[in-house]
């Protein structure tokens, strides 16, 4: 591990994070992962949306990536915002000292019902991806949005909880075949916890996240069918080929890359 990477890791462990986010439409947000407001001269970083730097990968091959997660919240990031291609400046704060860490771009923005995930990469990756992503074998829109037009309520169900474990639960009276909800979203009723369904077999559902204690008192869950953004899924599961936003018949991206060089 290089000395530079060791220094970066040390910074990540000891500082609070401030985020200056500039959306593609020009709107700017100043947020912090701290639990209180942080001021830097005339800039106020608000503790809204619970931004958390979940993963930071830096290596000597410059294949760098940062993953940020948060929740939708007023005066923070709302569900109506599009964070694709947003510029995200991360500032490290400690005892009144502010230090610019990185400015990366959101190359992948994933929206769930209550929360979201941003994958950030350097500017060079952003521009390369912009060229390649003019064409995509997978759908470019979000499942259930105004371009997809699928009504997610038609592909969801509310079930009673039989048992809650650490990262899994059992439900009663499941009326779907094994794996039907794989890749979907599960929402614990009466609280703000939700998670991705990794797999299901019988009445057992394996989740992506550990179920927190505050959610274990829930008696029911709502489960929403997921979409893997492939054309065959769009046709067979949702009968929605007319709204598929992609080019399923183009060659793989490696083919495109070889012709861009």
UniProtKB/TrEMBL annotation:
InterPro entries: Phage_phiJL001_Gp84 (IPR011928), Phage_phiJL001_Gp84_C (IPR018964). Pfam families: Phage_BR0599 (PF09356), Phage_phiJL001_Gp84_N (PF09931). Residues 179-254 form the Bacteriophage phiJL001 Gp84 C-terminal domain. This is Bacteriophage phiJL001 Gp84 C-terminal domain-containing protein. It comes from Rickettsia bellii (strain RML369-C).
